[in-house]
Amino acid sequence: MDYRLLVYFLAVCEELHFTKAAEKLGISQPTLSQQIRLLEDRVGSPLFQRMGKKVYVTEAGEILRKHSRNIFHELEQAQTAMNELQGMQRGRLRIGCSGNHLLTATIMTFHAKYPNIELSVMELATEETKEKLLSNELDVGVVFLPEEDEQLRCMPLYQEKLQLVVSAQHSFAQDQVKEIRLAELTEIPIAMLQQKFYVRQMMDNCCAQIGLAWKPIVELSTLESLLQMAKNHVCGAILPQSYVEGMSVQMREQKLCAIPIIDPVPQKEVGIVYRKDMFLCKTMDTFVKQVIQEFASC
Q1: Which of 48, 135, 217, 233 has CB 3.0 to 4.6 Å from 167, enough for a Cys bridge?
Q2: How far is the C-alpha of 56 from the C-alpha of 199, rounded, in Å?
Q3: Global pTM value
Q4: In a 3-state reduction of DSSP, which class is residue 94?
Q5: Are 126 and 98 in contact (CB under 8 A)?
Q6: pLDDT per residue over 213-246, tens digit each?
């Protein structure tokens, strides 16, 4: 099967739009359509279903997409192994993490040492990172543990805790509250991440354990937007301690106050994950060791 046809096929799978996929590939839409028809003739089954202006991947297409990703993964692994001979002078790492702030220090240190290694970092929910690791769309992830999938290897890093962040105008800040009981959070308006994020699930699970009915007044999708809610005195925000500590300068400048949550403390372990069948090249091994070293020094 022609390698180029699989490239075209995966582009359409990603875009679910022939014109957009053609633009991305730098070819005309009629050419792309003709190449997909050729591929469908070779596999003996339609790969896409067109309903009006929408394009859907068929069952046969899903099977080919899975195996195509594995093919490209193996080719990348071969290239990675050959790059070993060049002493980390080139290469690429695709990383997923539950908050870019977790890897900022590591990325700066790693890039300074190995400027020719391309780093692509995606901020994703833990489950999204795991899915992309298993589908060969990522090489390594920093996620919330435990992880029970037998295809993934896990290495614990640190224990993440949650804190309440409020503005200087908030009564808790003015009263210089040093810590707050979990049950007290039900009495004030709170902003939190959406339920697909582990930070939110940590909070929900912790409340459920003590029979506490709790619901945020605002749900958002980024830590930065939560911080803005607290800064503008809209409501309090529940944020990971690692993020709060990394924003210490901005916290002082914006006169924000972080208050530890107790009785009980919402917390969960964070670690590195990658596929067990992944070729642990020198680039990836060095990056993983750098992450471990950064967290060990905290």
Answers
A1: 233
A2: 33
A3: 0.67
A4: strand
A5: yes
A6: 888 999 999 999 999 999 999 999 999 999 999 8
